[in-house]
Predict the 3D structure of the following.
Amino acid sequence: MKFLEIENLRKVYGAQVGVQHFDIAVERGEFISFLGPSGCGKTTTLRMVAGFEQPSAGSIRIDGRDVVGLRPNQRNIGMVFQSYALFPNMTVAQNVAFGLKIAKRPDAEIKPRVAEMLQMIKLPQLGDRFPYQLSGGQQQRVALARALAGSPQLLLLDEPLSALDAKIRASLRSEIRDLQRKLGITTIYVTHDQEEALAMSDRIVVMSEGRIEQLGTPFEIYNRPRTRFVASFVGTLNILRGKVIDPAKGVVRVDEQDIRLDQQIPNAAPGEMRAIALRPEAVTLGETRPDRNAMKGTIEEVSFLGAIVRIKVRFKDNLISLDTFNSSASPPPRRGDSATVTFAPADLQVLEGVEG
Amino acid sequence: MKRSRLGPWLAMAIGTAYFLIPLIATFEFSLRMKRGEYSLEAYRVVLADPRFQASFGYSTLIAIATILMGVLLIVPTAYWIELKLRNLRPLVEFITLLPLVIPAIVIVFGYLHTYNSSSWIPLIATPRGTDLLLTFGYMTLALPYMYRAVDTGLRSIDVRTLTEAAESLGAGWGTILFKVIFPNVRVAVLSGAFLTFAIVIGEFTLASLLDRPAFGPYLQLVGANRAYEPSALAIVAFVVTWACMGLIQIFGRDRRATMAGR
C-alpha cells in the first residue's frame, strides 16, 4: 500500500472541468511535484488533497484512510502558501506555536519545539519579531517551520517560492529539499517552474488542462517526454516534423534526410507525420560518425551569449537549435554557412500523436 | 506658471467659518450663564443634573451593547461573505446602505407595528424588551458605518489564505474567527465602534418614540426649556463625538505606521 493514493480524481466547476482522470500513488517520504502552466489543475488537485476543495468524484487516501469528506483541520497536513500566510497579529514564535496550541500540547513541550523549529530554519533569534519585520525569504521559512511544527504526515507546498527573487529562490529550494530529506516527510510541491521541479523532485507529475500528461522521474520527464506538451514545457527543445519510413527499424525522414532512432516507433504506420523531440545539448556541429545521425543545413542565426554560443541551423522546413561552448581558438560560424549537425539515435524521442 | 492660490484659500476660509462660527457662538453663549462674566456655570449645572448623568449613562450602556452585538453580527457576516459568498457582496452592500435612505422614523414605526404588546414578539411590552429593540434599532442605524469599516479591514488582509493556513494547522471556525480574523481587523472594528458610539450618543428619533431615557431626548427636553444649558450640552456632545473621531485617527495612524513598515 502506498502512503498517498489518489484515484480517478475529478473536479468540475459547472460545465468546466478543473481536474480529471487523476491517478497517482506516492511512496512514504517521497517528494513529488505537480508541474504545469497556470490553470492546468495542479493547485486545484493540491487543494483537494488539503481539503480546501471537495472532489466531484474519486478518492484520496492518506496512509490508508480515505480523507474525502474530512475537513482540512482533520487531515493532519502541513501547508505552505505562496503568500506565506503568516498571522500578522502574532510573532514568529507564536505563529510556529499556533498549531501546537490548537493540538493542546503542554507548554513544556511547545517552547522547546518552537525553539527547535526556529533553529531548523536558521532563524533562532527572530522569535519575537512580527511577520512584517521579516524579509520574504524569512517569512517563507517561518511558514515552513509553522507547517512542520506539528509533525504532519503530509507536507503540501503551493508555489512557495514564486514570490521570492531568484537568488533567495535558489537557496531556499535546496533548504526545503534538505529539510524534507532530513525529516523524511511525504511532500507534494506545486510549481510552474520546471527548473524547480527538476531540481527538487523524486518524481514529477506534468499536468495540462486538468489531466496528467506524464508522470516520471526528472530524468525521464526531461529526456523521454511522451507528448509534445511535456517536451515543450520542460526545458528547451527542438521539435522536428518527420515522416515515418520504417516504424519497425525506427527510421523517419525529416526534410528529405533519413534519420534513425534506437528503438521501434510504437503505434505508427509508414507515411504518418510525427513530432520528434531533440534536446539542444544532444546536438553537435560537424563531427560526423557512423553511429550518429547527420543532417545538412544552413546556419540561420548565431547568438553569442558569452560562455555559450547558440546556433540555429535551418533545414527545409525544420530548424534545430544547439548550444556550443565559446572558444577563443575557434570563432563561431557565420550566418549562411553550410553546416552538418549530428546527434545520437538514442537522443531522439518520437512524441505521441499523429501530426497534421 | 504660478497659479493663484487665493481661490482655494478663500473656499477653505468660507467653509471653516461656516462650521466654526456657530460652534464658537454656541460655546461663547454657553459661558454666559452668569450675568456680566464668562463662567462654566452652565456646564456645572448640566453635569450635576442627575437626569444628564442617567441619560448619558443609559446611552453609553446602549452604545456599548450596540457595538458588541454589532461586532458579533457584522464581523462573522462580512468574514463569511469575503470567504465564501463574494458574489453576494453587491446585495449585502445594498442592504447595509438601506438605513441611510430609510428615515429612522419609518424604521421606528415599523418596529412599533411589528413588536407591539399584541404581536408575536412583544418587545415593547417591557422596558428591557424596549431596550433590546432600541439596541437593534441602533445596530440598524450604525450598519452602513460598521459594515464598511469591517469590510475595509477584511479586504486589507488575505482572509482566505489566513483561514486556510489556520485550518491546515488544525483550527476550527471559532479559533479562526477569534484568534486570527478578529485581531487582524481590530483597528477596523474599533473605527466602526467609535462611529457607532458617536451615532448612538446623540440619537433622538428612535429613543424618543420608543420612550427610552436616552441622551438624545434629554438634549431635546433641556433645549426646549432652558437657555444656556442646551448650548453647554451641545458642546459636550460635540466633544464626545470628536473624541471618538480622534480615537479613530489615532488607531488609524498606528495601523498605517505598521503597514508602512512592511
Observations:
- Residues 166-183 of chain A form the longest helix (18 residues).
- The interface with chain B takes residues 50-52, 71-73, 76-79, 81, 83, 85-89, 98-99, 102-103, 132-133, 143, 146-147, 150, 156 of chain A (CB under 8 Å).
- The domain at 4-229 of chain A is CATH 3.40.50.300 (Rossmann fold).
- Chain A has two domains: 4-229, 238-354.
